[in-house]
Amino acid sequence: GAVVSQHPSWVICKSGTSVKIECRSLDFQATTMFWYRQFPKQSLMLMATSNEGSKATYEQGVEKDKFLINHASLTLSTLTVTSAHPEDSSFYICSAHTPGDTQYFGPGTRLTVL
Amino acid sequence: GQQVMQIPQYQHVQEGEDFTTYCNSSTTLSNIQWYKQRPGGHPVFLIQLVKSGEVKKQKRLTFQFGEAKKNSSLHITATQTTDVGTYFCAGRPGGTSYGKLTFGQGTILTVHP
Question: What is the rounded distance in angstroms from the CA atom of residue B31 to the CA atom of residue A110?
Answer without folding.
Answer: 30
